[in-house]
Amino acid sequence: MQENQLFIINSDILPGVYEKVIAAKRLLRSGDSATIQEACKKVKLSRSAFYKYKDKVFDYSSQEKGKMLTLMLLLRHSPGILSDILNSVAAIKGNIITINQTIPIMDTASITITIDTNTMDISPDELVKLLQSAKGCKKVEIVGME
What is the crossing angle of helices 124-132 and 81-91, to 10°? Predict the structure, then answer.
């Protein structure tokens, strides 16, 4: 089995902890809970379980459009690498909403990119594979989807 594959699974067969994580994330997103501790208390979930799964469990609705995808990338610090990544996203009709870059340390920069996937030609999983194959890209990971 490949690492970081995405699956759509009916929640009926999953442990309840995953639904509680989703419920807590919804409370935080809507503003009904101001803190993670408050959201976890409302859904009867330990904070440690929330932190364990928060970046691995996402809500999905096939009826919704205009989803946001947040990616974390580790890129070699070299001219043109970030530009190539941005051009790859544009080529598949992804609309970049935000870009945050850290100061490069030991020849590696951490980049967080949020992309509106409404008009993308490929799936988020395919985008990850595309970017991982880009010259100078050391790592790509999905950190959030809305």
Answer: 150
Over its C-alpha atoms, the chain yields an Rg (Å, rounded) of 17
Q: Report whether 66 contacts 145 (CB < 8 A).
A: no
Cα–Cα distances in Å, from 16 out to 11, 48, 76, 145? 8, 15, 40, 20
Closest by CA to 73, choosing from 98, 107, 108, 103, is 108
Residue indicated by tokens 């009916």: 10
Tokens 């974390």, residue located:
72
pLDDT value at position 29? 81
Percent over 90 (pLDDT), the chain: 58
SS3 for 116? Answer: strand
The answer to whether 142 and 69 are in contact (CB under 8 A) is: yes
